[in-house]
Specification:
The protein has helices at residues 17-22, 66-75, 91-98, 157-174, 197-206, 228-241, 263-270, and strands spanning 31-33, 44-45, 81-84, 102-107, 116-117, 129-134, 175-184, 188-190, 193-195, 210-219, 248-256. It is α/β, with parallel strands linked by helices and 272 residues long. The longest helix has 18 residues, at 157-174.
């Protein structure tokens, strides 16, 4: 009897890959859809897993348990340690426990007793981790507090990106070489301009020792903005203001390793 064949970064049995595709529904597709759409080739329809924690926010379409479930399964091994930088309601922690991963989790305003009260710009994990799960605030789209450690308190986009750069610098110290960084952040509309906030934040990572392995676009699912009444109001405003609708979130899968394409040098050249 031979040992099972697994990738370097996960516990998936490659000899049983059909189980992961057909039964466990682990996807490599880059578009995730949720509600009221029929499955189409190349899309991943997010399954309903009753054994995972239920989101407890009206904005639950942004960060759903399926994200850590997919990422932890694909890019970590059982018993690995991972770090959830913005603890929220503890979704990452619960999913990690279900998948037999150890989760270190912090937040500046913890809601559960297992979430450490700490700032992700300075929090040092007891050991280097195999993965970082990061769902930061979308700048000031939702104002959480005026605390200087809170990204939503930043008065300008420049200040927000500087705040994010401090988190990236600290993440580098806490993440193993070849470890994975999962960033979820979409676009926002401010001052008559659409800002690709997630792209800006992803670029900070690319300029500081990471490479991009996959860019996933996931629809928001059920949010207040998708309700019929609010949709109609937004539609009218979009016609009047000359801008568009976006109901997709970005998930970036990045790896801590050198770019063979020398992307840091490319970015430095562009920014001269």
């Amino acid at each position: 009897m031979t040992d099972k064949k697994t990738p370097k970064h996960s516990s998936i049995d490659l000899d049983d890959w059909k189980y992961q595709l057909q039964e466990n529904k682990i996807t490599t597709n880059s578009r995730w859809i949720t509600l009221n759409e029929l499955p189409m080739y190349g899309n991943f329809v997010v399954p309903k897993r009753d054994y995972l924690p239920k989101p407890d926010s009206e904005f639950h379409g942004l960060w759903i348990p399926e994200i850590p479930y997919q990422m932890l399964t694909r890019f970590t091994k059982e018993n690995d340690t991972v770090w959830s930088q913005f603890g929220g309601s503890g979704t990452d922690y619960e999913v990690a426990n279900y998948l037999n991963r150890k989760c270190l989790i912090n937040d500046i305003n913890p809601t559960k007793d297992y979430i450490v009260k700490a700032d992700s710009r300075s929090y040092r994990t007891p050991e280097q981790v195999s993965m970082i799960l990061s769902h930061p605030p979308y700048w000031d789209m939702i104002k959480y507090s005026e605390d200087v450690s809170d990204g939503s308190s930043k008065k300008s986009l420049v200040d927000f990106i500087k705040w994010w750069k401090e988190i990236v610098d600290n993440s580098i110290l806490n993440l193993k070489d070849d470890g994975y960084f999962i960033l979820a952040c979409g676009n926002m509309y401010k001052n008559s301009e659409e800002i690709e906030l997630g792209e800006l934040m992803k670029n900070v990572l690319l300029m500081n020792g990471f490479i991009l392995k996959q860019h996933i676009i996931k629809d928001y699912g059920e949010t207040k903005g998708s309700e019929a009444k609010n949709y109609n109001i937004n539609y009218y405003r979009q016609l009047k203001g000359g801008y568009g609708n976006f109901y997709g979130d970005n998930i970036y899968v990045l790896k801590k390793t050198k770019s063979k394409n020398k992307l840091k040098e490319v970015y430095n050249e562009i920014l001269k």
